[in-house]
Amino acid sequence: MTHARFPSARLLALTVLTATLAACGGGGDTPAPTAVLGASQTAAPPAAVAAPAPAPAPGPSAQSTQTMPKTTIVGMASALPGFSSLVAALQFASEGGDLVSLLSAPGTFTVFAPTDEAFDKLARELTRNPAATAADLLVPANKALVRAVLQYHVLGATVRKADVPLGAAIDPVLAGNDTFRIDAKGDALVITDGRFRTSRIVATDVTATNGVIHAIDRVILPAAAEADRTIVEIATGNENFSTLVAALQFASNDGDLVSLLSGPGTFTVFAPTNDAFDALARELTSNANATGNDLLVPANKALVRDVLRYHALVSEVFAAQLKSGRAIEPALGSNSYFKVELGGAKPVIVDGRGRNTNIIATDIDATNGVVHVLDRVILPANVSIVQLAAGAPQFSSLVAALQFASVDGDLVAALSGPGTFTVLAPTNAAFDALARELTHNPKATAADLLVPDNRALVRAVLEYHVLGIRALRAEVPLGTPIDPLLAGTATFVVNARAAGLVVTDARNRDANIIATDLFANNGVVHAIDRVILPPAH
After folding, report:
1. Most buried among 160, 204, 238, 444, using CB within 10 Å?
2. Rounded to the nearest 5°, which phi and psi values hold at 16?
3. What is d(CA 65, CA 76) in angstroms, rounded to the nearest whole number?
């Protein structure tokens, strides 16, 4: 990952800080703060995602900054309306006045300056007291915490709005290895901090004699040494998940989904962004102007509830624990599943409808699990194996054979009902080839097999293609006899060859698996280019 470290300016700033500490009587061996919000050894925060249009927030106006005399960063913050809490925090957290002296001395700094309201919001967030204000943070027990937070807002180089390195990890000069990142949405700049919280830059390029100030509407926080927020609190703290939070509230029955993900547990949540929900709304409504909120209507409650439960696992799975190509079973139940494909630039989820979704950020740790971020809402399968085959023209002969060989519709009913089946599905061309093979007629087609005298044979052949377990491509046992669900003791073997997976049937005939992992709500289908046959009797 690229870090915007500004090395020469970092050295200058540290030199100035050392000199300032010495002048103020401070020691260079003062230990770094170890409060919960102190510097951690975590990687840069995940990529920020598209944010909604900026809301008005207090901050310096262009007119006020243009007419006032230029002074240092501390002088500007003291003179401008709306930054009294920042100045108070700098004075409170300084050791012998070092932070104030540093940002009053010559240099080339950038300070992301939270407004007074931003500090008040932080007080309410950290104390969980809706009446708390910034002053409630400035108590002796919080000094190390406040110091670490302020250090996280300072860069060692002057970085104007036009020069902000979008999408890169930005390394504050005084914050150890902690980083944050800035991304653009239209004309807005949005910071994603070490806790995956978002803050908007509401005023830029306030020039001081020793650098530049950008005003922000939320205090940014470095990564916590350990998780200290629930999954719901993480989602609530990031404006890019506002639709997810609204959907959880909407789809809950007496608040159950919100309560579940706010309480103790070891959950994994694949969290779609607001943009992902907007895209789903356009996909489902065919309305190019639809947004995620358009999905949250009473007629859709059951659907939204199922979709949300499809995004949650009841066990904690970090990115390193994901296994490529294997079925993942979410909390939705009902035999629902999806898979993750690894090996590309980003992990990709293939959902129940065969749609691909990128996992764009991983391993956001919560007290009750972990969050991974998605750029698309994933959807469970909505068709059975029979419906899947009926909707695919290349399987029309298979559907006809199932109907023909059923006794009172039993085969069709079995593969239309609940279960965890695997079906090796011959294509129309495979059935035509079988007809020519069995009749010795070069013009025979699948229809020539579906005559009364062949009913028992066709039924036995179809039963030989059905497994009683769901086995995705990555889960197929290779080189060992596989026992179909309905075929008695007859078995076949699947082997991996240069061209792909090959099924060898009981008559030592080979069939290639030509398409894999076609998902249904009661199992999975793999297409084969030849009908496999049980032992001859």
Report:
1. 238
2. -60, -45
3. 9
